[in-house]
Amino acid sequence: MKKYTYIIAVITLSIFMTSCGSDKKKIVADNSAPIAVKVSAVQADGNNPFLTASGKIQAENSADLSTRMMGFVNKVHVNVGDNVRKGQLLVSINNADLQAKRAQVNAGITEATAAYNNAQKDYNRFKNLFADNSASQKEMDDMTAHFEMAKARLEAANQMKNEVNSQFAYSNITAPFSGVVTSKNIEAGDMANPGIILISLEAPGKFEVIAMVPESEISQIKKGTEVDVVVKSINKIINGKVIEVSTSAKNTGGQYLVKVALDKTDTNILSGMFTTVQFPIAKKATASTMVLIPKEAIITKGQLSGVYITSESNTVVLRWLRLGRTFGDNVEVLSGLSADESYIVSAEGKLFNGAKISIQ
Predict the structure, then answer these.
(1) Is 85 exposed, middle or buried (0-12, 13-18, 19+ CB in 10 A)?
(2) In which order are the strands placed within the sheet that holds 89-93?
(3) Which residues make Cβ contacts (< 8 Å) with residue 231, sequence separation at least 6?
(4) Euclidean distance between CA atoms 322 and 320, whole angstroms
(5) Tens digit of each residue's pLDDT, the chain (360 residues)
(6) Is it true that domain 96-168 has CATH number 1.10.287.470?
(7) Cα–Cα dist 145/151, whole Å
(8) 124-160 burial, b if ≥16 CB within 10 A, otherwise e?
(9) Which of 29-35's residues contact partners 24+ apart within 8 Å by CB, and which partners?
(10) Domain 62-94+171-202 has CATH 2.40.50.100
(11) Do 226 and 238 touch, CB atoms closer than 8 A?
(12) How would you class 337 by CB atoms within 10 Å of its CB: exposed for 0-12, middle for 13-18, buried for 19 or more?
């Protein structure tokens, strides 16, 4: 009986010690130190002097090359990134059918030439006979008509040869200017179809920006205006000049196209880079105040962008945002954050929704 009492006492003591240990751990967890953070007030910029528009860089001289004929590709002579000179052969398309047609045309020209020469001799002979009153007017008229028809057939045969020769230009695709191959959309053995882009070229060195401006601002932009172009990916500013201003938004979704020629620069810019064009034009009095936050404060999860803010109980809250244009190191907040709020700039630990913080 004493043995069983001893065992029960040991089990009871073990359970008591385990409960005390769990309570101790829970107390430690509940009393964990808050994460030290630094916060900053939202920057509201209502005096930005620039009227801005988003744009994209493209080469001033570019071409998408295609063919007017259908045929198998014999060989592609270049690769993406190759430098090519004007007139250099880029793509060869099988032209056996054109060669057969040219042979037929040449045979037709030979036949038409022989008929023309014979008709010309008959015409000259009847012309002399008619002058000597040895041929009637009707015979002379018939011979003249025969000669004119032979002449027309020869001309038609020669024009057909010109048509065939022009088709050969579409079986051998050549570079229209010196530049760089930017895309190659076909390989040897593929079928080339009319109108399908085979090779794309760009002339390096000269670039321009195509910007889209809303209808409320387009009237303020004039041709010849000097502008600053912010290249977002490399954080550089390049000077430029407005060279075209569209007067119609019929085919551009309500946005007006503005073309800006970029000054020559040593900055490594490439076609397709996104930009912000800053026009030195005062904004209208009705322009809304912009809310700006630094890029490093942005939290990205997939395609969502947000920022950590503080609650009244000193905990972290992840607020999703809708972002707009970029101005240097700052990003415009279109919705999700107001000018009277603060956001977390840095923290001494990993932040998450509901984490306790202490503001430094």
Answers:
(1) exposed
(2) 172-174, 89-93, 71-76, 191-192
(3) 57, 237, 238, 267, 269, 273, 274, 275
(4) 7
(5) 444 444 444 444 444 444 444 444 443 334 567 888 777 777 655 555 568 888 889 998 889 998 888 888 999 999 999 999 999 999 998 888 888 888 999 999 999 999 999 999 988 988 888 888 888 888 888 889 999 999 999 999 999 988 888 888 788 889 999 999 999 998 998 888 888 899 999 988 889 999 888 787 888 888 998 998 988 788 888 999 999 998 887 777 677 899 999 988 888 888 888 888 888 876 554 445 667 888 888 888 887 888 888 877 888 888 888 887 776 677 878 777 776 678 888 888 888 878 888 887
(6) yes
(7) 10
(8) eebeeebeeeebeeeebeebeebbeebbebbeebeeb
(9) 32/356, 34/314, 34/355, 34/356, 34/357, 34/358, 35/316, 35/347, 35/348, 35/349, 35/350, 35/351, 35/355, 35/356, 35/357, 35/358
(10) yes
(11) no
(12) buried
Tell me how far apart the alpha carbons of residues 194 and 191 are, in angstroms, rounded to a whole number.
Answer: 10
Tokens representing 279 are: 């026009």
- pTM (2 decimals)? 0.53
Owner of token pair 């057969």 = 100
Give SS3 for 30: helix
Task: Return the CATH number of 35-48+288-359, one of 3.10.520.10, 3.40.50.620, 2.40.420.20, 3.40.50.2000.
Answer: 2.40.420.20
Asked whether 54 and 230 are in contact (CB, 8 A), the reply is no
